[in-house]
Amino acid sequence: MRRLCNRFSFPAGVAAIALAVAACGGADGWDPDADAGAAGEDGVVDGEADVRPDGADVPCLCNDGNVCTDDRCDPATGGCVFVANTAPCNDGSRCTTGDACRDGSCSGALVACSDGNICTDDLCDPASGCVFRPNAAPCNDGNSCTTGDRCSGGACTGTPLCNDGNACTDDTCDPGSGRCVFTANTAPCEDGNPCTTGDRCSGGACVAGTGLPAWYRDADRDGYGASAGTPVCSTTAPPDHVGNASDCCDSNANVRPNQTSYFASSYDCGSVVGSFDYNCDG
């Protein structure tokens, strides 16, 4: 904005008043036209100070669009002045609080995103605020009866120490000492024999329920039934069937439990090639 200059011819009585309307286009610091660089209705290009013949003023154009500055027009120089303020503001981020103007810009103190949970990573999204993402970090659940504690789903969990793998015992642990206790139960169970039903635990073992005996194919007639065979449920043994399923290769009579020979050479059996396991002990 420039200093005001008298661009018009006024009657003698009006000239003094026009000059007194001074520096920024008026006594109150207004720019007398808003024609954005083109000649306005008074014929004067915007930005050149003038007084409109009709005496009307329009607002001064000193506006930098920044809420953190106070904008004014200096009547003495005809220029704009933008003074930094300390007004409250909003920096648009949900990761800050107490936003206020400082040195002409809006800023706030960082929000402390912390849920106190070691099993989450605490982050801040400027659009949504605090975010707590579950992690898989090692941790300690404070339980002496677990091992390999690790975060999962935002919580610390571990694998129970006391597990004997026996469905016929109830496994418990003293959290203070970590001592395991395995107590026999009477839960239903599966004895592995498809020919029995109603199997139930007793004395820490699965006891067969009612049913028929199971007979397994003994193709090589070595007295041991095929371990991978399906049993036949019958009151008596069918031909070439025995009451056990312990032969790991029922097509080779030299391969059977308790075998003590033949270990110097290998054998093939179905999909098994080059095996030396003649006694089926694995």
Order of helices and strands: HEEEEEEEEEEEEEEEEEEE
- Global mean pLDDT: 82
Radius of gyration: 48 Å
Work out the helicity level: under 10%
Structural class, please?
A: mainly beta
Can you walk me through this structure?
With 282 residues, the protein is mainly beta. Helices cover 3% and strands 29% of the residues. It is built from one helix and 19 strands. Strands 16-15-17 form a three-stranded antiparallel β-sheet, with no helix packed on it. A hairpin with a 2-residue loop joins strand 3 (96-102) and strand 4 (105-110).
Give a short synopsis of this structure:
The chain has one helix spanning 12-20, and strands at residues 69-73, 80-84, 96-102, 105-110, 120-125, 129-134, 146-152, 155-160, 169-173, 180-184, 196-197, 200-202, 205-207, 210-211, 214-217, 232-233, 241-242, 267-269, 272-275.
Key structural traits:
3-stranded antiparallel sheet, 282 residues, two-stranded antiparallel sheet, 19 strands, mainly beta, 1 helix, elongated
